[in-house]
């Protein structure tokens, strides 16, 4: 992991850490958007009059 870029003269597109970094950024954005979408679905599907608790249902 401790590569010195001064001694190794490989083109940047042949280094696997570039692709791993891009892949992790894509996954991070997808997880963020999936969470945002689920929060929006929960917010718009929530109706105040249908709110109940488990204790009310069991008694």
TrEMBL record:
Transmembrane ranges?
Answer: 16-36
| Species assigned in the record | Dictyobacter kobayashii
The protein here is known as Uncharacterized protein
Top-level lineage group: Bacteria
Keywords in alphabetical order, please: Membrane, Transmembrane, Transmembrane helix
């Amino acid at each position: 992991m401790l590569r010195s870029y001064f001694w190794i003269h490989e083109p940047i597109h042949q280094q696997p850490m570039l692709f791993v970094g891009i892949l992790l950024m894509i996954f991070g954005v997808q997880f963020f958007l999936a969470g945002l979408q689920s929060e929006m679905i929960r917010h718009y599907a929530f109706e105040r009059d249908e709110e109940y608790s488990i204790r009310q249902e069991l008694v």
